[in-house]
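Incident log, support desk, overnight shift.

02:14 A customer reports that sequence design results differ from what the structure should imply. Their input is reproduced verbatim below. On-call engineer (initials T.W.) acknowledged and began investigating.
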């Protein structure tokens, strides 16, 4: 990453690529997930109009381009009283742990995870079908336990939460784990279609490493694959297995084009055309009637019967079926938890405020990631965002809030995700329910920027081969500086250079005000501007 290709906003260095990871320009510390490692910072001074930088040569090599975050707390608890308990072992949990220690929290941290390994980069399961957890872990179990002093309890299932006595109940033994602060980060559970034959062998969903192992073992050369669902998990898996020389790959989708609900019909059709060029066959505007057993092995899948919108049925031979039809919030354990009756909605989501605290409780319980229904910046619209980057950022925000005694800032990060679909697809914003799109570029060549409009306002941006547009657009969305639909239609685009200077000028104006202000005024400016380093 080069500085000339990066964004400066609120004293941050932003990646121009898909992750939009942000780092402090002063310290190199992580300011925005999903970066698991910080950057080195070097002393610099100006003399006779020249800038001089002093650095350890070892830290300037490519292999040492990054470093682990500096932890302000050793992780050695100063007391034996209950501390932070985190339910879940995913992206939100990991980033919360790191943020707690990075911001000086010195109490106990207990993580209760159903999975048998440390928190992993879950995106690599669908994007590359990686099956070795050691290649996916952000930090090893031993490192989390020794360096971060985390009581990591893997293979542990939470059965309920007792709000009255501040404890979490686990396992069939009904052991109670006390907490001072509770972070619910239990993620999602893959949905299965309620159709005949759904429980036959070799029908898979993808959530964890064990799922990836089963899919990997089933999809050997010459096998026939049917994929139910045509959005991101499904289509990323299609990309991952296309080169395996399978006999057939059939995709069934209810919409008119893959990705239609998120990316729109035009982009979806272009991506469908790309996949068809690789031998993938699509059955869109269709639904599954039933799944039929194999004639040779009655417990295994043999075919899928798909019905089109016109009522025509087609039988698709299948040695394996992958269901990618969404996830439900993993909050079943809260059904047996007194006090959560009115806090969990019909979908299983937990409603939180702008600080990610569970609404209706005393402020000591947070919910993050796939399970959290939180207010969107700018609109206040309540939405649940299923992406590990959002979970990671919410984990970092929650960890900081807890470490600083509950004095946090509203969560205002713009959701960002990416997907390999022939080319890298980048996306930022919340485009659900968009009512119009503006296309800039050539969809057939997969070189474009698409703006998603809702109520005459740009709410999301997607691109392929047009970096760093999405990186810039995410900041413009956050700052409320995105060009209007009418400006875009008139030929204006995301102001790459102007946006950079505009943000830098804005940053300098606030910094100048902060320098002149007294300590209390500086703190207020920092809270309002997000420039925490100047507080």
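02:41 Re-run completed on a clean worker. Output:
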């Amino acid at each position: 990453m080069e500085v000339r290709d990066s964004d400066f906003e609120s004293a941050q260095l932003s990646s121009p690529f898909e992750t939009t990871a942000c780092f402090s320009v002063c310290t190199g510390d992580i300011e925005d997930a999903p970066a698991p490692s910080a950057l080195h910072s070097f002393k610099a001074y100006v003399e006779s109009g020249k800038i001089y930088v002093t650095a350890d040569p070892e830290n300037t090599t490519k292999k040492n381009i990054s470093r682990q975050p500096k932890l302000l707390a050793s992780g050695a608890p100063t007391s034996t009283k209950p501390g932070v308990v985190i339910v879940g072992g995913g992206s939100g949990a990991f980033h919360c742990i790191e943020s707690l220690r990075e911001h000086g929290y010195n109490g106990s941290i207990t993580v209760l995870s159903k999975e048998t390994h440390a928190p992993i980069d879950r995106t690599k399961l669908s994007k590359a079908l990686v099956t070795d957890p050691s290649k996916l872990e952000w930090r090893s179990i031993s490192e989390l336990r020794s360096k971060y002093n985390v009581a990591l309890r893997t293979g542990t299932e939470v059965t309920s939460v007792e709000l009255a006595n501040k404890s979490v109940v686990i396992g069939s033994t009904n052991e109670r784990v006390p907490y001072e602060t509770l972070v619910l980060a239990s993620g999602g559970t893959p949905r299965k279609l309620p159709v005949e034959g759904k429980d036959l062998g070799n029908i898979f969903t993808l959530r964890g490493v064990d799922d990836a192992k089963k899919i990997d073992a089933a999809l050997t050369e010459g096998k026939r694959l049917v994929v139910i669902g045509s959005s991101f998990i499904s289509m990323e898996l299609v990309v991952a297995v296309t080169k395996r020389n399978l006999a057939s790959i059939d995709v069934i989708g209810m919409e008119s084009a893959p990705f239609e609900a998120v990316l729109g019909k035009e982009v979806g059709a272009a991506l469908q055309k790309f996949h068809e060029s690789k031998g993938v066959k699509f059955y869109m505007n269709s639904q599954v009637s039933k799944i039929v057993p194999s004639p040779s092995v009655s417990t295994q899948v043999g075919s899928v019967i798909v019905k089109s919108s016109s009522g025509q049925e087609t039988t698709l031979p299948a040695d394996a079926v992958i269901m990618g039809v969404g996830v439900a919030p993993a909050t079943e354990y809260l059904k047996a938890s007194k006090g959560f009756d009115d806090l969990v909605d019909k979908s299983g989501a937990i409603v939180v405020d702008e600080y990610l605290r569970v609404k209706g409780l005393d402020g000591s319980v947070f919910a993050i990631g796939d399970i959290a229904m939180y207010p969107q910046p700018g609109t206040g619209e309540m939405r649940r965002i299923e992406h590990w980057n959002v979970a990671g950022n919410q984990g970092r925000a929650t960890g900081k809030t807890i470490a600083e005694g509950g004095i946090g800032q509203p969560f205002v990060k713009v959701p960002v995700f990416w997907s390999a679909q022939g080319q890298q697809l980048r996306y930022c914003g919340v485009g659900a329910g968009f009512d119009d799109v503006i296309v800039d570029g050539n969809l057939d060549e997969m070189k474009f920027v698409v703006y998603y409009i809702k109520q005459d306002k740009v709410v999301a941006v997607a691109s392929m081969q047009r970096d760093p547009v999405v990186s810039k657009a995410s900041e413009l969305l956050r700052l409320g500086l995105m060009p209007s639909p009418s400006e875009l239609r008139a030929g204006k685009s995301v102001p790459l250079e102007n946006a950079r200077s505009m943000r830098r000028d804005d940053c300098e104006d606030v910094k100048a005000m902060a320098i002149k202000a007294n300590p209390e005024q500086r703190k207020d400016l920092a809270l309002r501007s997000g420039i925490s380093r100047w507080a």
